[in-house]
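During data preparation, we tokenized the protein backbone, and the record follows.
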Amino acid sequence: MTGRRDHGDDAPRSAPVTDAATSARMSRQRRAHTAPELALRRELHRAGLRYFVDRAPIKGQRRRADVVFPRRRVAVYVDGCFWHRCPEHATDPKNNAEWWAQKLAGNVARDRATDAALIEAGWQVVRVWEHEDPQVVAQQIVALVRGTG
């Protein structure tokens, strides 16, 4: 799981022992260009917006946003319910529960630190859950980027 955004920077360093099926399933998790991201990007493009994809909003920062509007200083993150602890859909793994609790809490803490750093640098941060309607979210982002919302 190394090399994935939001899935490893501050995680406990020794990964737990997992069975082969779980390991294979986790290795297929996409870091970027997920179905919810693609659906949102299609809606933003359809609305006439142009943007950067999978880019660090602040130069020198390793944490990358899913969609970036640099001129308007808007960074959009499409957060997965499992990885970022959605209040509606978060689940707690039964195997290696303590390791996963620390790992997922670290992801949330990193999200809040990223938000704070961007806000301090004059950016607007939009956090979207993977289960949210991409058309509704896109309308909100369009309004924000165009300065009408």
Summary: The first strand starts at residue 52 and ends at 55.
